[in-house]
Amino acid sequence: MNRRPYDATRLLKWYPPAWRARYGDEFVAFVDDTLAGERPTAGFVFSIALGAVRERGHESGLVGTRQAPTVQSRAGALLVLCAWSVFMFAGASFSKLSEHSAQAMPAGSGSLANVGFVIVAFSGALGMIVVLVGAGVALPSFVNFLRSGGWQVARQRVRLALALTALVLAVIVPLTLWAHHLTSLQRNGGDGPYSAAFVAWAILIALTLVSWDRVIVQCVAKMDLSPRILRVEARLAVVVSFLMVAITVGAACWWADVAGNAPWFLQGASDGSSSSPFTPNLIITLALMVGASGAGAFGVSRIARSWSRA
Amino acid sequence: MKKSATNEGLRRTNDPPFLILTSLASGPKHGHALAKDIAAFAGVNLGPGALYGAITRLEERGLIEPLSGVERRRPYRITEAGSKSLATAVADMRRLVDVSTARLRLAIGGLS
User: Fold this and answer.
1) Which residues in chain B have their CB less than 8 angstroms from residue A27's CB?
2) How far apart are CA B112 and CA B110, in angstroms?
3) Which residues contact A306 (CB under 8 A, 6 or more apart)?
């Protein structure tokens, strides 16, 4: 039985369109010549995937040194904004995990947890204000973008994001009604079906945030932003990046204090029982915060590079 | 990017742009011919992502340029700027090799 030859054009789809238009044909020819009818190895496919990610990084201005400072600055600010959306998710998770933690702490303890919680809440609120100010600053450019045909470019992604948002909102009501019939213990992992539904809802929220990020990235990449607006957005992005670090530190302080004085609270167990302070939810939440802070710091490094070259 | 030969953990120069410029210094080649030549003279198997990533950057910097292709295969040749860049890199390496060689002689002399 003859095997069908490997279709190298499938691998090409990972690269950005402009790169495909310039190098696509010869790249497929190279892959065909190299494979000579054989299936590609995992290493071969990985090399192509890595190359595609690198090219997308170059195209967006996140990788490389040869792009214009404005391109690097815009890419850095956008990366910080995307990292902030991860923080919105992680922050909501932290808010749920830390609910009623003050009551669980033994008398005379919990001052570090309190300070950590205040830092998280204050930095989160301030970050939200800064992001809204950034959106306001870019609003006139966004309106111009829409007037000059931008809606045609973005409408498909906007529709998907709106549909996901509507789904998230529609699920809130039945989920809340369900939660009202459960005890605190059942709501925090004690009831299997409710936990599964809650996790599915959380995944839906994450997908919604990602879909809005895609809309924002697509629009901002094509918007005509003046150097003055870009400078303002870049400065706001630096502030947001510092706030993300502050939130992460605050959450870590809260965790350390609660883990030391009331570890049972983290497991949702009864007072005084011996419990591990390492719960999957909290580990995932803090990992998201650390990862997003790292991404934000990388975005700031791109902004700083653009400033040093301007 | 795989190296076909190892040397007790010591790395040889396997920088894709350097290898591509060295290969093109002997004449124009397309992607597959470049990869085969580099594997032959340096023992380095460049993966498709690494090879075409380096070709893209070298072309952007004006160190190589495309020639008209045969079917889908597009050959590249080294430019004057590319030749100068390669010459500078080779001179830097030669200085390093000279220092290593001289110190190695001293070390071997000290041992004997």
Assistant:
1) 31, 48, 52
2) 6
3) A69, A70, A72, A73, A76, A234
If DSSP codes are grouped into helix, strand and coil, which group holds residue B63? coil
Distance of CA B20 to the CA centre of its chain: 5
Q: Please write the tens of the pLDDT for every residue from A160-177.
A: 999 999 999 999 889 888
Length of chain B: 112
Say yes or no: A56 contacts chain B, CB-CB below 8 A. no
Specify which residues B44 forms β-bridges with.
Answer: B3
Q: Which two tokens stand for residue A189?
A: 């992992």
Q: For this complex, say whether ipTM is above 0.90.
A: no
Cβ atoms of residues B59 and B78 within 8 Å: no
CA distances in angstroms from A204 to A159, A164, A170, A298, listed in the order given: 15, 7, 11, 27
Cα A220–Cα A226–Cα A232 angle in degrees, nearest 5 = 80
Task: Go through chain A and tell me how many residues it has.
Answer: 310
User: Residue A297 carries which side chain, given as an amino acid letter?
Assistant: A
CA distance A309 to chain B (A): 18
Residue A191 phi, psi (nearest 5): -115, 110
C-alpha A23/C-alpha A48 separation (Å) is: 13
Q: What is the largest CA-CA distance in chain B?
A: 61
Nearest to A50 among B32, B49, B71 (CB): B49
Judge contact between B24 and B76, C-beta under 8 A: yes
CB B78 within 8 A of CB B34: no
Q: What is the pLDDT of residues A64-83, one digit of tens each?
A: 877 888 888 999 999 999 99
In one letter, which amino acid is A66?
R
Return the residue matching tokens 């070298």: B58
Q: What stretch of H or E contains B2?
A: strand B2-3
**Given the DSSP bridges, would you call strands B76-78 and B64-66 parallel, antiparallel or unpaired?**
antiparallel
Asked if B19 contacts B46 with a C-beta cutoff of 8 angstroms, the reply is yes
Q: What average pLDDT is seen over chain A?
A: 87
Which of A20, A30, A66 to probe by mutation at the B interface, max B CB count within 10 Å?
A: A30
Distance CA A18, CA A30 (A): 18
pTM: 0.76
For chain B, report the end-to-end CA distance as a whole number of angstroms.
Answer: 39
